[in-house]
Amino acid sequence: MVILGVTGSIMAFEPELDRLLHPQLSYVAPDRRVISLSEIGDAASRRFGGEPVVAYLPSLSPGLSSQVLLPSGIAYVNQHTGEVLGMRTRGQTHLGYVRELHVRLVGGSFGRSIVKLSGIAMLFSLASGLYLWWPIKRVSIRGRWGTRRPWFDLHNAVGIFSLLPLAILAATGTIIGFEDQVGPLIYKLTRSSPMHITRFTPPEPAPGATAITPDEAVAIARTHIPGAIPYRVQMPKYGGLYVVALLNPKERVAGDGNVVALDPYSGQVVSLSRSSDLSRGARVLAANEAIHTGSVLGMPGRIVVCLASTMVFVQALSGLFIWLGGSRARLSSSPPMNEKGVS
Amino acid sequence: MKKAIAVVLLLTMNAMAEDLTGKWSGAFKVDGSDHDVSQLFIFKQEGNKLTGSGGPDQSEQYPIENGRVDGDRVSFEITTGEWKFTYSLRATDAKLAGDLELKSVDNRRTAKVNLTRIQ
Fold first, then answer.
1. What class does CATH assign to B2-117?
2. Closest to B60 (Cβ–Cβ): which among A91, A199, A232?
3. Which chain A positions have a beta carbon within 8 Å of B108's beta carbon?
4. Where are the domains of chain A?
C-alpha cells in the first residue's frame, strides 16, 4: 500500500515531472507563428536519416514543443521555428518504472494480483481506522516529539482528514483493477454496452492518386468535432488510414476520446467516435478512472490525489512509530497507553 | 559420419524451405496482462528477407521493418506509434511462436506470441 501511495503521488504529476526531467526537449519560447505538421515532420525526418513519420503529437500549449514519432524514437520539434530539439529513444525510464510499480509492482501477473487485492485491503484498513478513531475523535497533535503520543495523534489526525480521498482512491483503484469483472456488471446495471468502433479496410488508391497532407486531415477532422484540439495524428502508412485524435478541453471525463479516421486519398471520414457519444456504462468507467487520477477536477483534483497518496506513507510511518513505542513500553514494563493514547 | 552430415543438411534445408509468405493470425499476451491481443500478419518472404505488414486485424496494418528469416528463426519489428514491437519467433510446422518485446518512450514490456498460418 505504501508503494502504491508513493508511486501514485508521483504519477499525479507525471507529465510535468517528465518535462522537468527533459527541459531542453520539452520547453520552447511561445510565439504566434506555428509551422504546419508537414514542415515539422520534414524537419524531424531530415534530421534523423530520412526516417518516415509514424505519427504526430501536436503541441497543446504554445510553450511546449511538438513531438514526432519515428520508428527509432520520438523527435521533439519547436513548432514555431522548425528547430529539432532532439530525440528520445525507446526504453524504460524512471517514470515508466514508477508506473510499472503502481500497476503491477514490476512483478507480472503476480504483482498485478497483489495490486488488485491491495485496494480491497486499503478499504478494510480505512474502515478499521475509522472504527478505532471514532471513540477518541482526535484531530490535533499534542505531546513531545520523541515520545509515542505525537505519533499517535498524527496517525489519528492524518487518518481522519485523508479518509475520504483515500477511500475514493482505493475504491476507484479496485474497480480499475477488477475492470474485467466489474465492467460487465456496470454495463448490465446501466443497460448499455461498450462502444463499438467499426473499422473499415481502406480502398486501394487509384493509380497516380496523391495522399492528402496531415494538416488537411486535421482540418477535416476538426469540422466533425468543433472546438476540439488535435493531440495525435497517425500517418496512413502506419495503420492504413489517417487517424486524428482530438481533445475536448470542456469535457473532464473522456475528453480525449474523440477519434476521426480518414481515407488518406479522398479525405472521406471512414469512422468517427465522439466522447459525447459514450454509452452510460463506458462513461461510468471513464469517470471512475478520471476520479482515480484526479483529472476529473483538473489541477486541484490532481493535487488532492498527490497529497492523499503521500498520506499513505505518513500513516505507515506514524503507525510504525506507534508500534515501536508500544514494543519499547512493553519491554520496559511501563504501563501501556489507554484508549486515549495517554500512558 | 557422412550420413549424419546428410541428415543435418536435410533438416537445415527443410527448415529453410519453409516459406512464410501468406497470412498468419494469432495473439500475444503481455506478461502481467489479463488480455490476449489479436494479431494478423501478411508476410512476404524473399530469400531470408521478410516484408509485409501486421497489426491487430485486416483493417489496421503496419509495415514490417527489419524482417529476417534465418533457418527456423524469424525476427522483425513493427512500429505503431508510441510502441515499437520487436518479434523473435521460431517456426515449427505451420506455427510461429516466441517472444515479443514492446518498447515505448518510457516503458519496456515483454509478451509471448503464438501465430498460425491461415492462408
1. mainly beta
2. A199
3. 90-92, 96
4. 2-95, 107-191+295-331, 214-278
CATH of domain A214-278: 3.10.450
Q: Do B58 and A201 touch (CB under 8 A)?
A: yes
A335 confidence band (pLDDT: 50, 70, 90): very low
Taking a C-beta distance cutoff of 8 angstroms, is the pair A130, A156 a contact? no
CA B35 to chain centre: 20
pLDDT in tens, B56-77: 988 889 999 999 999 999 999 9
**What Å distances lie between residue A66 and A46, A48, A71, A255, A260, CA to CA?**
16, 16, 17, 20, 20
Partnered with residue A323 across adjacent β-strands are none
Here the cell at position A36 is 504546419
Interface contact A104-B32, CB threshold 8 A: yes
DSSP structure class, residue A334: P
What's this model's pTM, rounded to 2 decimal places? Answer: 0.81
User: Are B61 and A239 an interchain contact pair (Cβ–Cβ within 8 Å)?
Assistant: yes
Mutation pick from A11, A178, A200, A238 vs chain B, by most beta carbons of B within 10 Å, is A238
Task: Report the residue from B55, B63, B108 with minimal CB separation from A91.
Answer: B108
Any idea where the domains of chain B sit in the sequence?
Answer: 2-117
Binary contact (B59, A201; C-beta < 8 A): yes
The partner residues of A271 in beta bridges, in order of sequence, read: A261
